[in-house]
Specification:
Helix content of chain A: over 70%
Number of helices of chain A: 15
Oligomer: heterodimer
CATH architecture of the largest domain in chain A: Orthogonal Bundle
Strand content of chain A: under 5%
Largest interface: A-B, 106 and 96 residues
CATH architecture of the largest domain in chain B: Orthogonal Bundle
Number of strands of chain B: 0
Radius of gyration of chain A: 28 Å
Number of domains of chain A: 2
Helix content of chain B: over 70%
CATH superfamily of the largest domain in chain A: MetI-like
CATH class of the largest domain in chain B: Mainly Alpha
Strand content of chain B: under 5%
Distance between the termini of chain A: 47 Å
Order of helices and strands of chain A: HHHHHHHHHHHHHHH
Number of domains of chain B: 2
Shape of chain B: flat
CATH topology of the largest domain in chain B: MetI-like fold
Number of helices of chain B: 15
Largest sheet of chain A: none
Number of strands of chain A: 0
């Protein structure tokens, strides 16, 4: 009985101190642990190396070459130094893409974060049937983005689309509605609207989890000190949600830079590059023009943007934890 | 006096609640109207009516000639069944393999001891930053060289190992008390028995989170299958939906029927397992 109660560390000590205790079985136990560890790690590690690390390194290498997707036997791939990067930084489409991604981030990230917080506060109330609203607000998240884009393209139809008819209806015909996806000024805002519609529920749930983590005593203390509901929100809720907000802000920013699916379904970057994004350009260059070298250059620059946002996130969150 | 005051308080309460519900319902309409519009339009069998209804509130009312003709046509005119099978097959295999392999790696990192373990943990954390978008083009060249274009494996293998999920498992496993392992070791359990009989049964929440998040991500994948599938044989629903949408002339009734069928599986799963969906989304955020 006593033997069973000793922990492995103690039994190791006993084994080392008491001669005659079986050394071999402990050693083999250790060895078995190491073998299992490597066997257990092998599948995932192999896949990570083959499908993440190797292509990642290749992107850097290709960005310095004129690699094509289908190599030409007579024109071997050449090392061209930084020529891809020079070309990229004088490419109007690239500037337009980067500009759009930043625009998307600057407009959508604060809007969507604030909207998500508002929704979370609303459904965190003690009201009958509030769960139904939580379900409804979250449901677009489980709808595939391709479908969302397709449905909204109908709603955004310039002539007969519901949105324009609705705008005319509520303004008694005074608003002259835009051509949305066909108009260079309105195509990108249209994509922003449907992106917020689809994505906001996700952040709402993250905020809701944050709200429910706030200790009730804090609100009680604030009430005792005479704070009203609004003051409680600004002085208790918001400061307590700081970490959650930073997280939501920066992950949404990264998503803003990954913008692709809805753009590809609706406008393919047009009209006149007005909805061009970094990933649309990367896809066009790599897959349609078969320019693996140039496309890899975009991938590298894209990676560094995402890296910077991730570093910002870690810095902010670390400061918070202190 | 007291009574009239109480009545006053009560009316204020009712008024406040009325405003709250008004806001909640207005927002609900904002999130619901495109979905209702899609489902309602998909069952209108007269294409002329679908088009003329789309410009007014009639688009939200099921009236006129209703039926599942659009759904039948989607099955008849293209390989819809095939697309559905492809999406289900690719998603389920990737998610199942991912849960097994990612949790196994996380287990050996969190619960076993071997040289190089800390280095691997830091590599996994670093890899979380690399977005899939920045590796797709070199990967495309790789899979093209080995002749994997247009296949199932090309859509499955690259997505099985996922640093983010390894990290989720790792964080959960490291929080499980070691008493269980120690007792099991004394009873003669091997490391793989500890994994399968102690850690996995204790980790249902994290397995559920990974199952749901990974299923959503896989089901929605678009960029990669757009590049690596050519014909309908291996094409998933997302790409098929986009291609059907791009065809001229646009038959909105059938497009909405197609869209409804892409939406329904996940939507139904969500309505049944809501609590799990919401928990898994919440768990993706807190740690950051």
């Amino acid at each position: 009985m006593k033997v069973e109660e000793t922990s492995p560390e103690v039994s190791v000590e006993i084994a080392e101190k008491v001669p005659g205790v079986n050394f071999g079985s402990l050693k083999s136990q250790k060895r078995r642990e190491v073998i299992t560890a490597w066997l257990f790690s092998a599948p995932s590690l192999t896949l990570l190396v083959v499908f993440l690390i190797v292509p990642f390194v290749m992107a850097f290498i290709f960005s310095l070459t004129d690699q094509r997707l289908i190599p030409n036997r007579y024109v071997p791939t050449a090392f061209i130094g930084l020529r891809n990067y020079l070309r990229l930084f004088s490419d109007d489409a690239f500037y337009r893409a980067i500009f759009n991604n930043f625009l998307f981030a600057i407009v959508v990230v604060p809007t969507q974060t604030a909207f998500a917080l508002l929704l979370a506060v609303l459904i965190n109330q003690n009201l009958k049937g509030v769960r139904i609203f939580r379900t409804i607000y979250f449901s677009p998240v489980v709808i595939t983005m391709v479908v969302v884009a397709v449905v909204w393209s109908n709603l955004f139809n310039p002539g007969q689309g519901f949105i324009n008819q609705f705008l005319k209806f509520i303004s008694f015909g005074r608003i002259k509605p835009p051509g949305w996806l066909t108009d260079t000024h309105y195509a990108f805002p249209a994509i922003m609207i449907l992106s917020v519609w689809q994505g906001v529920g996700f952040q709402m749930i993250i905020f809701l989890a944050g709200l429910q983590d706030i200790p009730a005593e804090l609100y009680e203390a604030a009430r005792v000190d005479g704070a009203n509901k609004q003051q409680q929100f600004w002085l208790v809720t918001l400061p307590q949600l700081k970490n959650t907000t930073i997280f939501v802000f920066l992950t949404t920013t990264i998503l803003a830079f990954k913008l692709f699916t809805q753009v590809w379904v609706l406008t393919k970057g047009g009209p006149q590059n007005s909805t061009m994004t970094t990933i649309v350009l990367l896809y066009r260059q790599g897959f349609i023009q078969l320019n693996v070298g140039y496309s890899s250059t975009i991938a590298v620059v894209f990676f560094f943007i995402v890296l910077m946002i991730s570093i910002l996130q870690r810095v902010f969150l670390k400061e918070q934890r202190r | 006096m007291a009574r009239s005051k109480r009545i006053k308080v009560k009316t204020v309460m009712i008024f406040k609640n009325f405003i709250k519900y008004f806001i909640l319902i207005a927002l609900a309409l904002f999130f619901l109207f495109p979905v209702v519009f899609m489902f309602v339009s998909s069952v209108k069998t007269n294409e002329m009516q679908v088009v003329s209804d789309m410009s007014s509130f009639r688009g939200f009312i099921p009236y006129g000639a209703l039926g599942i003709k659009n759904y039948i046509n989607v099955f008849r005119e293209m390989h819809f069944g095939r697309f559905m099978f492809n999406s289900l097959f690719i998603t389920s295999i990737t998610v199942l393999a991912g849960m097994v392999f990612n949790s196994m790696l996380a287990f050996s990192l969190a619960r076993l001891h071997f040289k190089g373990q800390r280095f691997i943990v830091s590599i996994v954390v670093a890899l979380m930053i690399i977005p899939i978008e920045s590796v797709v083009i070199p990967m495309l060249l790789m899979v093209n060289t080995v002749g994997w274009i247009d296949s199932y494996q090309v859509q499955i293998f690259p997505f099985i190992a996922e640093p983010f999920f390894i990290f989720l498992f790792y964080q959960f496993f490291i929080g499980i008390p070691y008493d269980f392992d120690e007792a099991a070791v004394v009873d003669g359990a091997t490391p793989s028995m500890i994994y399968s009989r102690i850690i996995v049964p204790l980790s249902r929440p994290v397995f559920a989170s990974v199952l749901i998040l990974q299923s959503m991500f896989r089901w929605n994948e678009f960029l990669w299958p757009l590049m690596v599938t050519q014909g309908p044989k291996y094409r998933p629903l997302t790409v098929a939906m986009q291609q059907f949408f791009s065809q001229d002339p646009r038959l909105w009734g059938e497009i909405f029927a197609f869209a409804s069928m892409v939406t329904l599986p996940l939507l139904i799963l969500f309505l049944f397992f809501q609590k799990w969906f919401i928990q898994s989304v919440a768990s993706s955020g807190i740690k950051g």
